[in-house]
Every structure is written in C-alpha cells, then in structure tokens.
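Please decode residue identities from the backbone states below.
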C-alpha cells in the first residue's frame, strides 16, 4: 500500500507527483500505521485469550490425572488390605486344627496368580 504502483513508473510517469500529493492529502501513511497498531493490539489480545483457554484446559486435564492417580492408589491399598485380611482369617481358622508346621496359604486365584503359574 505504501509502495508506488508500477503504473506510475511505466505508463504515466507524469502522474507520479499527483499520486504523491493525493497520498499526502489523504494521510495514507499515518492511517496505515494506526491500522497496524490496532491490528497488533488485536493480535496480542487473541494470543492472551488463547493462552488463557489453553491454561484452563491444561488445569482440567491435570486435575483429571491427579484424581485418577488417587483412585489408583485407593484401589491398590484396598486390594492389599483385603489380601492381608484374607490371609489373617485363613491363618486364624487353621490355628486350632492340625498342629502342622506349614501355614495354610490362600488359593492362587485369590492372590491373583494364574492357574498355570508356579508358586
């Protein structure tokens, strides 16, 4: 927009001073600078808004990950406590019985061991 069109250099070089006078009269250069400044402000605003939206989404995702980790820990702790409770009840049930040296172990299925796995 600020460059002189080729028309004034190639076809009608005598109109070039008139073109320059019209540009100065209409204050084209300052108006373009004002428009560029406003565009920069809008671009900065758009960047701030997109960063804010991305931050909100990342915060939500972070909280989802934290909740999933806490749930995983709770499930694991519950599983461990249930296994210890099963071992304790199995041990108490066999104390008065036989007098054998080997303590009773829960079945491999309760411990989560496959049927074909070795103990």
């Amino acid at each position: 927009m600020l460059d002189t069109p080729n028309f004034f250099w190639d076809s009608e070089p005598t109109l070039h001073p008139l073109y320059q006078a019209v540009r100065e009269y209409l204050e084209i250069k300052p108006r373009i600078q004002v428009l560029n400044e406003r565009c920069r402000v809008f671009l900065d605003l758009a960047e701030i808004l997109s960063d804010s939206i991305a931050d909100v989404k990342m915060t939500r995702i972070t909280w989802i990950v934290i909740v999933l980790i806490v749930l995983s820990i709770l499930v694991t702790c519950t599983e461990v406590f249930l296994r210890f409770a099963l071992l304790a009840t199995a041990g108490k049930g066999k104390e008065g019985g036989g007098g054998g040296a080997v303590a009773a172990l829960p079945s491999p299925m309760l411990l989560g061991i496959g049927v074909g796995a070795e103990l």
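Observation: The chain has three helices and no strands.
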